[in-house]
Amino acid sequence: MSVDLVYADEQTPMPWPNFTPVTLKTESDISTITLRVKFADYSDYETQLRWQDDIALTPQELGFYSVLFDAEDLKSSFKSVKGSATYLPAGPAKKQSFSFSFSTEPTWQASWWVNVHFAGLNGQIEYSWSGNLKSLFPKTYDSGRLKASVSPVKLQYTK
How far, in Å, CA of 87 to CA of 96, rounded? Predict the structure, then answer.
């Protein structure tokens, strides 16, 4: 991944892999900085930022979106849960997949950073999950295919 900042007639790369701070100086009175990101899969993302003396870039400004799968409410009813998700982009980003599972972990949550090439989700998450119920007779629950357009995604059990 590479990150370049462009301000008026000045351009500078941010050094990979830590992307340490860089300084851009110009005599121009332009009030925006162009952020260009090139990802490891050779796709790219560009956005405009308003000028500030100190800018700390967030993952969202770099074109990422955090999706949290939350299964905390299932702990009392299930021995284990596993699932999968696919990001279906509305824009130029690529389709991406993610898997999660919970059983003995203290926290039944999983985070997924999706490369969306946008400041928000800009698409949908299609997901499904299944789980082994805590019951006298072994029983498996299957959620079927579900869709989400915001994070967090709360996994819900319907009896």
Answer: 5
pLDDT tens digit sequence for 16-53: 767 777 887 777 777 888 888 888 778 888 888 888 77
3-state helix, strand, coil in the chain (%, to 5): 0, 50, 50
CB 81 within 8 A of CB 131: yes
Kindly indicate the confidence band of residue 15, based on its pLDDT and cuts at 50, 70 and 90. Answer: confident
Reduce the DSSP state of residue 72 to 3 states and report it. Answer: helix
Contacts of residue 129, defined as CB under 8 A and 6 or more positions apart, other chains included, come to: 71, 81, 82, 83, 84, 100, 143, 155
**SS3 state at 156:** coil
DSSP for residue 142: E
